[in-house]
Input
Amino acid sequence: MASHGDRSEDAVVSQPQDRPISTIVIIIAMQTEALPLVNKLQLTEDLEPVFPKGVPWVRYHGAYKDLNINLIWPGKDLALGVDSIGTVSASLVTYASIEALKPDLIINAGTAGGFKAKGAAVGDVFVASDCAFHDRRIPIPVFDMYGVGLRQAYSTPNLVKELNLKVGKLSTGDSLDMSSQDEASIVANDATIKDMEGAAVAYVADLLKVPTIFVKAVTDIVDGEKPTADEFLQNLAAVTAALDQAVTQEEMGSEDVARGGS
Ligand code: ADE
Output
């Protein structure tokens, strides 16, 4: 499959205006990833929910310096009690959060599988340069590009440099494993990391013109020897610490975000 990497007409997830960032929404799919950050930022759970009655979505909020910080976790599936991971919940909470909170910036933080052939290692924290889907195959002209849904992330060269983060392309799909068809699309997307939410958050953020940063910590090596689910579960807690560190520092540097985008 041809690479979809370098089209000049690609959608760009909106860039911030020349005004200071005051409200940040952080979208995190898993409780294990979210709670350490809630504690570190001393956020409190919403007592007057901004989301519709009955949904499992949780907002934690608080202040850091001049920033109004909202961490949104899609919560536990109402029937099965597991984290509501994946693109459907991610797009819903992104839409609802933008509507309710009018953020100046979204940070989608979480874990990802990494490709060692593209330079990823367990524990690395990546900022995604762009996101695309790898499981929306529609072999009809133009619908094929719609399915891939390539979107550039907001560029943060200053933060990447200051925090010494890696930069790579992110490919998103609704499966933890990787079929051979997914693999071919991930190669076509030129991705270094693979997650289950990023491109869905990018889609909604692009629709509503909210600049978005994707910060992903690598829990497992997709092109390695270990079974993905085992390696993911084994490394989830430890790798989340590296993710926290990066996200809290991003917040401290969010004034740089307003100045530093290109
Ligand atoms: N999150 C962490 N590891 C992942 C993987 N291998 N695929 C998709 N999402 C992930």
